[in-house]
């Protein structure tokens, strides 16, 4: 998918816009393919707390994950 953005003096602004546009147009195909290949996916939804994201595995198991410069951290599992 291609996006068309107005140039900005701040390159981070353009990157953020491109990511947001791609997320709005996402139909979930890539995530389903990733799970089918036995790779976990990371996502958040309206019920996800502010800091962590949900890591979902092929068999359906989910965990809350936080990321920082030292890697990923698992504060707790999700049902």
Structure overview:
This protein has one domain. 1% of the residues are buried. It contains two helices and four strands; from the N terminus they run ααββββ. It has 79 residues and is an alpha+beta fold. β3 and β4 form a beta hairpin. It is globular. The chain has helices at 11-24, 29-36; strands at 41-43, 53-56, 62-68, 71-78. Helix content is 28%, strand content 28%. A four-stranded antiparallel β-sheet has the order 1-2-3-4.
- Report the radius of gyration as a whole number of Å: 15 Å
Q: What is the terminal-to-terminal distance?
A: 34 Å
How many beta-strand elements? 4
**Major β-sheet strand ordering:** 1-2-3-4
List the uncertain runs: none
Secondary-structure element string: HHEEEE
Percent range of helical residues: 25-40%
Q: What's the rounded overall pLDDT mean?
A: 80
Biggest beta-sheet profile: 4 strands, antiparallel
Total number of domains:
1
Number of helices: 2
Described by the principal axes of the CA atoms, the overall outline is: globular
Q: Which percent range describes the beta-strand content?
A: 25-35%
Structural class, from secondary structure content? alpha+beta
Short structural summary:
The protein has 79 residues and is of the alpha+beta class. The protein has helices at residues 11-24, 29-36; strands at 41-43, 53-56, 62-68, 71-78. The chain has a four-stranded antiparallel β-sheet with strand order 1-2-3-4.
Descriptive labels:
single chain, 79 residues, alpha+beta, four-stranded antiparallel β-sheet, 2 helices, 28% strand
